[in-house]
């Protein structure tokens, strides 16, 4: 087998993609670097060992697999067989500890798996006829079972090699690439869909966290730092375990799983839990294939305290047998369909993994050598707890990988002791209930009473003397609601820590603190006290169910009427009639702009101030309702009262409330036809037009591939219906007699859909012609005094394949207007004309001039004054961001530009979405955080500003109107070392800054900057600033009977600002599109900038608690 040409690259398996993503997020952690390390005692032929490993490389493609990224996706590719060299082994004679440390460093060194196979063979010398053998590999190409198979083949090959014979090994008839194809077809066939749905249904009601008491506060984000505890079980336990399991018609694994479940129940008091077990993942026909087959299988274990061990044993058998039938369903799919929200401090769904593979490496595996396993301590943790039980003849050794940020080594040792004692107790008496199993350590039969009493007494004293501690009764305290007097009774009894069944809690197990017969209680509402005696005699205590401060204030309750109104608005804003009160605003498609419109609409309806942060802090709609009701109880009460009124009463009330039209308005402001002066959003585009008349700097061009029979007359008719509805599409711009720009609306205008037919060209000519037509469309500007300011071309590529090119001038359309107004209107009209079905838009929109008149009226309100004060405070003292350039800035601004594109794979895109949901922020805030860090690093400025466009629609009526209403928001972030230390600090600041900016989005950016003395920043046309856009995938464009693919913004060779960073969520991943001025930078500099942006996003979502990089320059 030789190198696979790019056209034949095979997509990676789901497990490989998952591991690659983890490595991509934290490359230095080497979380999935696996290993086997053995001490070899006896005469070793290094050349024979090299020849044996080289033979294995030639036999198994997994050892010759690299994992490159091709067209945005992870692929598998084979390289030619390579020769294993174990030259000049380092000499650690008499220094085993140093040799183990050498092995650890080698194992944890990251692999370059995109260019070389992620496999290592190494040898070190410990003395005469004494060596340390290291087999290192990335889990994406091999699992432990595959490594064991390699050693078995090596054992067969070595004698032949030493004797000069050809090794007699069975031929390899399949490889992991074959399995990947088989598995991909199986998933695509839908054959597993029923099992997957059943599995998700089974797990949906289970708790998604396993609350093992922690020794240290759990970090906000799960890290990868950990430790390894290697603990032997009692000698000779395997024969007894096998005999017991055979009597009860289960496997030893079922017995072990039942025992660990019993201990988890006792430590967590959970009656229902999800535990991860590892599946072999190999179909029978791939039993001899080397590859990463092993898979994670979440199993739901129900373990109430009164359950007998024998019943738990049977449950373990039944659950695992069902689970193994489902092991070809990717774990990632199960997680995605089971969890609606993730906790970044924990692994999703599974935090504890139990693995007891029947692997055993005999000491005589290699001829003439004694081979013994060496445990290499690793500094990683993939889960809270990961149990690997190793079989060594009649003995078992537990190698427990644990999160050292939350657990101490003593806690893990005690847990394993409890595990062993639970297994022993269950085997001795299968009828014992879980709560009656006596959990002891291997060196004791229970804590000495004096130690427990002393520790408990000390705890009682400390708890009782703590201001927020337990209840202390005075002699005159009342009892009961009626104030009946009671007496305080002193009971001279020793304190104790007890389990729920009243038994004394063993060392290491959490319980309730008692003084005599009385539980030490906290004041009502302060939660329940739990206490644990540690291995070293310390006593840890914590409070469960502590009251959480909520934005809604104390005592806020749900308001059904307010919930219904919020749900109604979200359905309208997000165009999704399935939204319910339990939905997460961001999970159903909400983002910063929509959140701002939601809050603005609610504030206007209720005449109450509702902070935008409420949406971020309370993303579930019923939570948002509760928060608003807590802050404005009168609003909730009023809505409840309104819902009780009859339609006649509501109509009468509306009549009473209606003010005489125009009573307090300026007549000029009320007459929309008089509003022909430019609005604040139009002025920057007009000004740019004066600097570069007719250039493409103000041209927005979108391109869509359409498969299917497009009805061109219906498309043109639909476009003209939109032109008739939207007056801005019939508008031109002129200088008036007073030399000020004004708008002229024409009564009617007909637009034409141009057609370019390329079907007669050969494929290469067709591609070149399409690229040329697209470039012409994007690079052609407009004369804004002449209609139309919109162009549409359909390029025919095949009978049922077209490319639609639509461009417009920014004066008449912003991105919101295209994707949320124009395309939905065209789609609706097209369906009516082409099929005779459906309904056109049901109401005429207000005119663009009406919106401008409303804006003029708003500018005279207290709300506008408040926004002006906000921006004056935010921008005072701002130092303009200056970036190092490759060329001196020209005296006059140059609009010549180019663009750099960088595509992060789908896995990164999905990880950004998950991270944003877990942190209750938006992808925009994630990208803004990362970009500000890169700009800080590049420029050295601590005062970093980004300008970002926002939709700036004041109300729902304006949401249906086309035109340039977009405003620029200045996002100003302070990256001083005294202000932010970690990524999480900066993310929190960015969230607050974005929320504040969107809550004040309607005040014109030009005037806000002018008030701060920075009006030249955007008013001069030089555009020496950085803008950020984050575009969602949905364009709102559909054509009945056709498939409209996700569109793209076509770059043009012009740049209105120094740097414009657009992040697009596309089908293939996360696209960073950076437009730049060629008069300032080389392309290579901007390519490094785009790479730095992707790296910063990756660093942020990987380890938010890591410190911000402070090194100057682009790395």
From TrEMBL:
> What PROSITE patterns does the database record attribute to this sequence?
CARRIER, PHOSPHOPANTETHEINE
Q: Which SMART domains match?
A: PKS_PP
Q: Which cofactor does it need?
A: pantetheine 4'-phosphate
Q: Which domain of life is it from?
A: Bacteria
Q: Care to name a GO molecular-function term for this sequence?
A: phosphopantetheine binding
Renumbered residue ranges of the record's region Disordered? 479-502, 653-674
- Domain Carrier positions: 557-632
Pfam family membership, one:
Condensation
CDD domains noted in UniProt: LCL_NRPS-like
Gene Ontology CC, one term: cytoplasm
Acidic residues compositional bias: what residue ranges?
654-666
The UniProt transmembrane annotation reads none
What GO terms in the biological process aspect are recorded for it?
Answer: amino acid activation for nonribosomal peptide biosynthetic process; antibiotic biosynthetic process; lipid biosynthetic process; secondary metabolite biosynthetic process
Q: Which Gene3D superfamilies match?
A: ACP-like (1.10.1200.10), Chloramphenicol acetyltransferase-like domain (3.30.559.10), Nonribosomal peptide synthetase, condensation domain (3.30.559.30)
InterPro entries cross-referenced by the UniProt entry: ACP-like_sf, CAT-like_dom_sf, Condensation_dom, PKS_PP-bd, PP-bd_ACP, Ppantetheine_attach_site
Keywords for this entry? Answer: Phosphopantetheine, Phosphoprotein
Q: What is this protein called?
A: Carrier domain-containing protein
């Amino acid at each position: 087998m030789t190198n696979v040409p790019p056209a034949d690259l095979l997509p990676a398996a789901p497990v490989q993609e998952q591991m690659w993503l983890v490595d991509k997020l934290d490359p230095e952690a080497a979380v999935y670097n696996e290993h086997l390390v053995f001490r070899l005692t006896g005469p070793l032929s290094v050349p024979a060992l090299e020849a044996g490993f080289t033979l294995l490389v030639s036999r198994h493609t997994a050892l010759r697999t690299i994992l490159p990224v091709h067209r945005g996706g992870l692929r598998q590719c084979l390289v030619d067989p390579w020769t294993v060299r174990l030259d000049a082994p380092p000499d650690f004679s008499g220094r085993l500890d140093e040799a183990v440390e050498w092995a650890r460093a080698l194992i944890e060194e990251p692999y370059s798996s995109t260019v070389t196979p992620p496999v290592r063979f190494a040898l070190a010398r410990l003395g005469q006829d004494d060596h340390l053998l290291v087999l290192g590999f990335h889990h994406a190409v091999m699992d432990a079972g595959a490594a064991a198979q390699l050693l078995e083949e090596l054992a067969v090959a070595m004698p032949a090699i030493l004797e000069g014979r050809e090794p007699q090994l069975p031929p390899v008839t399949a490889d992991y690439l074959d399995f990947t194809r088989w598995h991909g077809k199986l998933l695509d066939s839908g054959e597993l869909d029923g099992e997957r749905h059943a599995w998700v249904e089974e797990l949906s009601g289970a708790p998604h966290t396993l609350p093992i008491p922690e020794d240290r506060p759990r970090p906000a984000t799960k890290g990868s730092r950990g430790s390894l505890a290697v603990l032997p079980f009692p000698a000779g336990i395997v024969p007894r375990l096998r005999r017991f399991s055979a009597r009860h018609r289960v496997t030893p694994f079922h017995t072990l799983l039942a025992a660990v479940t019993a201990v988890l129940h006792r430590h967590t008091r959970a009656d229902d839990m999800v535990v991860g077990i590892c599946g072999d993942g190999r179909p029978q026909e791939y039993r001899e294939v080397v590859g990463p087959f092993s898979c994670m299988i979440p199993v739901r274990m129900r373990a109430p305290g009164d359950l007998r061990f024998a019943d738990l044993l049977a449950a373990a058998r039944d659950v695992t047998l069902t689970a193994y039938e489902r092991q070809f369903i990717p774990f990632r799919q199960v997680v995605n369909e089971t969890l609606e929200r993730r906790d970044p401090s924990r692994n999703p769904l599974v935090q504890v993994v139990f693995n007891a593979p029947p692997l055993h490496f005999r000491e005589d595996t290699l001829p003439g050598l004694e081979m013994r396993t060496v445990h290499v301590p690793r500094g990683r943790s993939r889960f809270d707890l990961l149990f690997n039980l190793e079989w060594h003849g009649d003995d078992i050794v537990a190698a427990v990988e644990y999160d050292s940020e939350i657990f101490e080594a003593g806690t893990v040792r005690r847990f394993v002791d409890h595990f062993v004692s639970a297994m022993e107790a269950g085997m001795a008496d299968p009828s014992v209930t879980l709560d009656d199993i006596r959990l002891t350590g291997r060196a004791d039969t229970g804590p000495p009473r004096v130690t427990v009493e002393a520790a408990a007494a000390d705890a009682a004293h400390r708890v009782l003397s703590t201001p927020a501690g337990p209840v202390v009764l005075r002699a005159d305290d009342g009892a009961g609601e009626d104030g009946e007097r009671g007496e305080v009774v002193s009971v001279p009894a020793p304190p104790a820590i007890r389990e729920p069944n009243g038994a004394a809690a063993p060392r290491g197990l959490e319980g309730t603190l008692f003084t005599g017969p009385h539980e030490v209680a906290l004041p009502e509402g302060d939660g329940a006290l739990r206490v644990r005696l540690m291995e070293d005699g310390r006593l840890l205590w914590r409070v469960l169910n502590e009251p959480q401060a909520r934005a809604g204030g104390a005592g806020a309750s749900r308001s059904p009427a307010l919930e219904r109104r919020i749900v109604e608005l979200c359905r309208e804003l997000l165009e999704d009639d399935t939204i319910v009160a339990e939905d997460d605003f961001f999970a159903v498609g909400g983002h910063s702009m929509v959140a701002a419109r939601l809050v603005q609409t609610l504030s206007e309806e209720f005449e109450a101030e509702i902070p935008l942060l409420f949406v971020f802090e309370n993303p579930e709609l019923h939570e948002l309702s509760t928060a608003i009701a807590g802050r404005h109880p009168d609003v909730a009460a009023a809505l409840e009262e309104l819902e009780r009124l009859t339609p006649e009463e509501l109509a009468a009330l509306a009549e009473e409330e209606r003010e005489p039209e125009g009573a307090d308005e300026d007549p000029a402001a009320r007459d929309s036809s008089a509003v022909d002066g430019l609005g604040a959003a139009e002025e920057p585009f007009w000004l740019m037009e004066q600097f570069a008349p007719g250039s493409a700097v103000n041209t927005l061009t979108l391109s869509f591939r359409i498969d299917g029979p497009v009805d061109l007359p219906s498309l043109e008719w639909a476009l003209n219906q939109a032109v008739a509805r939207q007056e801005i599409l019939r508008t031109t711009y002129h200088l008036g007699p007073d030399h000020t720009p004004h708008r002229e609306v024409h009564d009617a205008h007909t637009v034409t859909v141009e057609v370019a037919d390329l079907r007669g060209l050969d494929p290469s000519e067709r591609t070149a012609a399409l690229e040329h037509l697209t470039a012409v469309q994007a690079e052609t500007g407009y004369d804004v005094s002449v209609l139309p300011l919109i162009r549409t071309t359909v390029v025919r590529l095949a009978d049922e394949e077209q490319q639609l090119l639509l461009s417009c001038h920014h004066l008449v359309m912003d991105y919101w207007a295209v994707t949320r107004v124009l395309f939905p209107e065209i789609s609706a009209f097209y369906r009516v004309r082409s099929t005779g079905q459906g309904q056109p838009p049901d109401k005429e929109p207000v005119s663009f001039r009406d919106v401008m008149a409303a804006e003029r009226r708003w500018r005279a309100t207290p709300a506008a004054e408040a926004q002006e004060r906000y921006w004056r405070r935010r921008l005072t003292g701002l130092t303009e961001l200056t970036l190092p350039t490759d060329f001196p800035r020209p005296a006059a601004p140059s609009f010549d530009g180019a663009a750099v594109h960088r595509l992060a794979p789908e896995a990164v895109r999905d990880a950004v979405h998950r991270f944003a949901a877990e942190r209750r922020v938006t992808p925009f805030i994630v990208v803004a955080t990362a970009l500000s860090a890169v700009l800080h690093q590049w420029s050295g400025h601590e005062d970093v500003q980004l300008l970002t466009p926002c939709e700036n629609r004041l109300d729902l009526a304006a949401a249906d109107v086309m035109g340039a209403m977009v405003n620029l928001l200045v996002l100003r972030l302070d990256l001083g070392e005294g202000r932010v230390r970690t990524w999480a600090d900066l993310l929190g600041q960015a969230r607050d800054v974005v929320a504040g900016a969107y809550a004040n989005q309607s005040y014109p950016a030009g005037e806000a900057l002018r008030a701060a003395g920075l009006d030249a920043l955007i008013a001069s046309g030089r555009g020496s600033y950085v803008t950020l856009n984050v575009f969602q995938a949905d364009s709102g464009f559909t054509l009945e009977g056709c498939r409209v693919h996700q569109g793209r913004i076509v770059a043009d060779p012009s740049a209105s600002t120094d740097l414009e960073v657009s992040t697009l969520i596309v089908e293939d991943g996360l696209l960073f599109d950076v437009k730049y001025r060629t008069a300032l930078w080389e392309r290579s500099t901007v390519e490094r900038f785009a790479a730095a942006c992707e790296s910063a996003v990756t660093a942020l979502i990987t380890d938010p608690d890591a410190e911000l990089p402070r090194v100057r320059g682009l790395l």
